[in-house]
Amino acid sequence: MGFKSAISMQQVTKSFDGGKEFVLNGIDLDIPKGQLTVIIGYSGTGKSVLLKHMLGLLQPTSGKVEVLGRDLASMSPDEMGRFRRRLGVLFQHAALFDDMTVLENVCFPLREHRRYWTAQQIVEVAETKLAASGLDPKHYGKLPGELSGGMRKRVGLARAIALDPEVILYDEPTTGLDPILSEMVDDLILETHQRVEGATSVVVSHDLFAAFRLADHMVMLDKGKVLLAGTQEDFHNSQVELIQRFLAKGFKK
Amino acid sequence: MLAFWMQYRVKLNQAIDDMAWALFQRIYQFFFDSGRSLIFFIESTKLIFTKPYRVEEIIKHMEFIGNKSILIISLTGAFTGMALSFQIYLGFNLVNATNLVGPTVALGISRELGPVLTGLIVAARAGGAMAARIGTMRVTEQIDALQVMGINAKQFLVSPRIVAAFITMPLLCGVFDFVAMLGAHVLGIYVLGLDEAIFWDKILLWIKPSDVFEGLIKAAVFGVTFATICTFKGYTTSGGAKGVGEATNQGVVHSMVMIIILNFFMTNFIRFYLAVING
């Protein structure tokens, strides 16, 4: 393997219909610590389901998921709650709380978990995170419904990094965005990964260009299994037909 | 002709079978959902007593359930009180017992109509909104976002709503009772020409505090019932906007049916309990 794992999955399977069909079909995977890993694959190959297993939002039908050295299945709900503070997530559509302003959204996890901080401290940190994700202060008082797709992603990212997580996960961060905005979000992911020292980033995407721009390490899924995991060079040199086809189509686009 | 009738009979039998099967499935689903709601209620109730206590959320939801329902509750109460006193007056006038219009209206309002109508109205207004709000949060991954932040979503979204409904519903029922009696008073005295002194004297004579408390206790239980069912439906929503619509609809209908059923059992239980403690 040659690297230290932040996330490790062993023989993970997942079925939603009592074993008739498997979305994940024996996943063996190691996400290197401190690196930016991109998980790619066609739509419906189980990428988002895989991400939800890493977050403990879904339990595997069988197999083991370890995040930062902890077996998720062995944790009590309270332990899981505390543990999840070490993770940050940018959801596909940002999942901002629509009855809170931009600033309140970013303050929210801080208010919940930094209870000994003053209101002033919380606002200051939230503003720092929003500035780091490149949002203009004139938008801080707006509700999520008043923001564009790109701005929502920025707020989502600011909220994801509010508690200085050790692992940041991105679920299809560029879905539904135009190419320019997609590139902006990719830059943001790269900047965030480089700025947060030692942080592990995991991006789930079907955007091949983004994958090659961002990834230190890449994983390709197909039919609920890992087809290939390795460096960009490993992917370029792969003789697997499906990977060659995916690369050819991705770059032709 | 016979062949036609035989064919028709087969189709009719099939239709009756289908209808009976559909009815059975709906009844089964109702009891199945009720059981799951009960488990959901027990889990959420435990979380009320664990830190962090969500006082701010409880107050916010009390304002939503209570303050914003007062107008519709008052309006319904006033017209219910007037209609009930008129109907009872018509009946009692036949046997020359109009002196008893006041206490009969008061009993009907405080024990039955107050809590039941308050429950049904608030379940439709606030319960529907709860199911829709939590359902939308579910399908837009906001509940996942809460969990990933290390926040217990049930404790944050469900428990405060149940507590708020439990506290607010007796207050709303009190408002309903008061306004309904005012309506009955206005119609009885100024339109039907009943004697004001007798109207209130008989009420004070026949109505005991336990009659009013019975209604308030029922209202609190109905509050917990609709808050649990509607938050449960919202929390378990799936399938996008269509799913949210279905969850809202099912939450309101299920709550209303449950309130009506519970009312019957609670009336009997409370009467039995009072009979036991009064020897």
Describe this structure in words.
The complex is a heterodimer of chains A (253) and B (279). By secondary structure, chain A is an alpha/beta fold. Chain A has one domain (5-252): 3-Layer(aba) Sandwich (Rossmann fold). Helix content of chain A is 38%, strand content 23%. Chain A is built from 9 helices and 10 strands. Chain A has helices spanning 47-54, 77-83, 102-113, 119-132, 149-160, 179-195, 208-214, 232-237, 241-252; strands spanning 5-14, 24-32, 36-40, 62-67, 70-71, 87-90, 167-171, 200-205, 217-222, 225-230. Chain A has a 6-stranded mixed β-sheet, sandwiched between helices. Chain A has a 4-stranded antiparallel β-sheet with strand order 2-1-4-5, with helices on one face. In chain A, a hairpin with a 2-residue loop joins β4 (62-67) and β5 (70-71). In chain A, α3 (102-113) crosses α4. The longest helix of chain A is centred in the C-terminal third of the chain and has 17 residues, at 179-195. Chain A is globular. The two termini of chain A are 33 Å apart. In chain A, 42% of the residues are buried. The mean pLDDT of chain A is 85. Chain B is mainly α and 279 residues long. Chain B has one domain (53-277). Chain B is built from 9 helices and no strands. Chain B has helices spanning 2-48, 55-65, 70-94, 101-139, 142-148, 153-191, 196-206, 209-235, 240-277. In chain B, α3 (70-94) runs antiparallel to α4 (101-139) and α4 (101-139) crosses α7 (196-206). Chain B is globular, with a radius of gyration of 23 Å. The model of chain B has no long low-confidence stretch (mean pLDDT 90). Chain A binds chain B through residues 52, 55, 57, 77, 81-85, 87-89, 91-93, 95-98, 108-109, 112-113, 115, 159, 163, and chain B through 52, 136, 140-142, 144-145, 147-152.
